[in-house]
Amino acid sequence: MASPPVPISSLIVEDWFHGLYTAGIFLTLWVIFTNSAFTMERKAGLTAIVLSMYICSTMHCSLQWYYYSKAIDDNELPGGPGLLFSLTHLAPWLEATGDTFFCLNILIADILFIWRCWVVWQRRWVVVILPIIMSTCGIGMAARFIVAQVTLETSGDAFTSIKRRNDFLAFSTAYFVLSIATSLFTTTFLALRIVMVQRAAVKATGHRKNPFSAAVEIPVESAALYSLTLLIFVILNVTKNVNAFYAQNIHAQMTGIAPMLIILRVAAGHSRDDTAWSTRPDPSIHTQPTPNNRGITSRIRFRPKDATSIGVDSVGLGTYTTDAERSRVAVQISSGEANTSDSDIKSVKETA
C-alpha cells in the first residue's frame, strides 16, 4: 500500500507536541517570575526569549491547521479541486509565512545554543566563531530559498519554474546542511564540556554527582533533542521520504522546547553557575557553600550606650574565616572605648 503524499496525521502529532510545549511555557514563566535572585532586567530578557520562540512555534502550528482544514473544506462540496490537489498546492503567502516562522525559530535556537556554548566554555570566542559564521550564512540561504519557493509557486513560465525549482533545492539543502552543522557543533562541544566539568568535580570533591542528575544534565544542557530531531528531518527531507512531514512538524515544536528546558533549568537553579564551568579540580569551584565552610559567625551584640557593660548575646556581627581575623576582632573589642571585664573578653575569644 502506497504512502499518502501528505500525511494529515502529522498535524495531530504537532498539536500534541505543541500542547506539551504550552504546559512547559507556563511552568517556565512561573519559575522565572518567582525567582527572587533574578533582576527585573534578567526576568524580562528570559521572558522575551521564551515567548518569542513560543509565538513562532504557535504560528507554524496554526498555519498547518489552517492549511489542512482549508484543503478539507474546499472539497466538501461537489466540484471541488480535489483533496490531493489542495494538499499539494499551497497558497504562496501561506508557504512563505510558514517557512519564515520555521526558519526564524531555528535562528533563535541557534543563537541561544551558541551563547550557551560560549558561556560554558568560559567565554572563549575561538570555540563559537565557526558556528557563528555558519549561522550567519544560514540566514542568507534561508532568505534565498524562501524567495525561490514563492517564485516557483507564482511563476507560470516553464523555464522560470525549472530555474526556481533548482534554486530552491540548492539553497534549501545548503540551509539545512548549515543548520545541522551548527546544531551538531554546539551540541558536541556542550556535551564535551559538561563531561569534562563533571569529571573535574569528581576529582575535586571526591564523590560523584547523583547519576540521574548527571544523566539529565547532558541531553538537556547540550540540546541533544534539538539536534536529533533536526538530523532526522534533514535525512528524511533529502531522501524525499514522506515521513519528513512528521519530522518537520515535530522539529518545529522542538526548536522551542529544547531552549525552554535550558532556561527552565537555569531559572530553577539546577544549572551550574557561570563560574562553575571550570575544568580545574578545585574544590572551591565545584563545592556548594555549606554551613561548615562559610566561616564562623560571631554572636556578639552591644548593649545601648547608656549601659554600663558589654554583654554577649546571640546576634552575629560578621563572618570571620581566618584565625588572624578572629584575633583582630577580639583585640578591637578588648581595647574599645567601653570597659570590658576579663570574663567578657574571655567569652568573646571563645565565641570567635
From TrEMBL:
The chain crosses the membrane at residues 20-38, 45-68, 93-113, 125-148, 168-192, 212-238, 250-268. This is Uncharacterized protein. It comes from the Eukaryota. Residues 285-296, 332-342 have a biased composition (Polar residues). Keywords: Membrane, Transmembrane, Transmembrane helix. Residues 274-297, 331-352 are annotated as: Disordered. The lineage of its organism: Eukaryota, Fungi, Dikarya, Basidiomycota, Agaricomycotina. Residues 343-352 have a biased composition (Basic and acidic residues).
